[in-house]
């Protein structure tokens, strides 16, 4: 089926080449980082994780969000989603690949990465995260590929695939739970040290993933002959509405506990992020933008006539996506490090090389989605002809 | 059937090609990082000092100003080839000093003893009995040595994921954001230098203990620091702990730090 990726219109190839240029540039800058070290980034002794790990965390959510189309179809026999499960699975593959790349570029000694396999360490959550992420990638490749191939041959997918499909559902929950455990089990980081972190991660994942999927569906409908279907898009929109609602609720639970208990270690990161601390306030505009977008999109999605309007829906989905990207892709990681365990405020901002490498990995993800969706839609196109 | 097996073959061939071409690249990576420095033996010699859990008692009553701490900081950083960076972001430190409110942020009183409020507190890795950094490390590059409780670093195994830095509640760990070697004033050939991309921290001078010597900071401390076995009731540290009220950093986190402060 891979050959379907190298047949296409001029526009298709123009887009592919544009992505390749961005990827190539980022690769060049990554070589500079390999040569100089991570000092090329804005990270420091005090804020020792930054943009890369934040993108990784956000994208684990996008990948897990794919399960929101898989579950209704395979578990509840919601037939309408049969049309788009493949889009969810391929989105998950692209997102997980980006996650792995973000971890790779964050390593100080990437050539030693297989030490994680050579010296397996079950007490480290990172060891388990490596297992669940690669497992989820593997599951989605196997499932997506076989389901699509069966569709092309107009047969039912092989029966041995069914257990793997069922397994992929709890596994999706697993990837984001384990990723939350990376943070919420660390004793000195008040911002992360909360049991609601994994549920918050999941609710934001189930909003961000389907929101992106709606955007992709609407885009596909515009530029190809394939119509993901109005009912499908509407069902996804309802899922986004429920998930963003839960996300806002979980966030407020956390805010209540932190500010009613008044424990400084838990309050200070929030104060830094939303009001500024000791005269440092780099995150304040970002965090309020995220909150406002989340609340606004939640209110808009609650209104059926707004939700059903397909010229407004993409804007709302964009708001959801940007809000959750700021929340995880900017706020989450920095909030864990500021103030430092010694109570000092050391701010962090990504550098230009860091942003370029990040863009390159996003471009790589976009390339994967483009190619995967092209293959999937071409298979569908063959059937139509 | 034919179609399927041909595709299978091509798939396998593709995987094999990737595998073969990757080998030389990996070899090149490996060759690039061959160290040429003499690494001293890590096994304790016949005169090596032994303990169940090494611990340190810091008598802050003997500290008058930051000047009293400079010799120990310098001694440590000199023998361990700790580089000096002007850029704060890249800073590496094994032992340094902080005000009380930063060393003990959760135990600050509004009004407190004037001496304590201003005296510089030496801070370093606490060699916790229950270290969160060791729990977090995915490769066992940082580990608690069973023989004497020192939290050690294997600079050659560390992948530079910095999970340990997020896990440490004391900010005791530093990362080599760039090649440290050009920034070492005078290299001590007895101790390895580090490469970029790995984490490092205080090792309680395990290399000196192995040859029967006290840690460098203790030697240079003019009696401010005392070092010994926490579980030997006759040890110097136990005597001090018996006679003085001591505090440890962030005791409420359950990490069981092995560095005690007489205040």
TrEMBL record, chain A:
It holds the Pfam family NrfD. Keywords: Cell membrane, Membrane, Transmembrane, Transmembrane helix. The chain crosses the membrane at residues 12-32, 52-75, 87-105, 125-148, 160-181, 201-220, 240-263, 283-303, 315-337, 357-377. One of its GO terms (cellular component) is plasma membrane. It is a multi-pass membrane protein. The lineage of its organism: Bacteria, Pseudomonadati, Thermodesulfobacteriota, Desulfobacteria, Desulfobacterales. The keyword Membrane applies. Belongs to the NrfD family. This is Menaquinol oxidoreductase. PANTHER family: POLYSULPHIDE REDUCTASE NRFD (PTHR43044:SF2), PTHR43044. The keyword Transmembrane applies. NCBIfam families: DsrP (NF045798).
From TrEMBL, chain B:
Heterodimer of a large and a small subunit. It comes from Desulfatirhabdium butyrativorans. Keywords: 4Fe-4S, Iron, Iron-sulfur, Metal-binding. It is found in: Cell envelope. GO terms for cellular component: cell envelope. One of its GO terms (molecular function) is metal ion binding. This is 4Fe-4S dicluster domain-containing protein. InterPro entries: 4Fe4S_Fe-S-bd, 4Fe4S_Fe_S_CS, DsrO-like, ET_IronSulfur_Cluster-Binding, TAT_signal, TAT_signal_bac_arc. The keyword 4Fe-4S applies. It comes from the Bacteria.
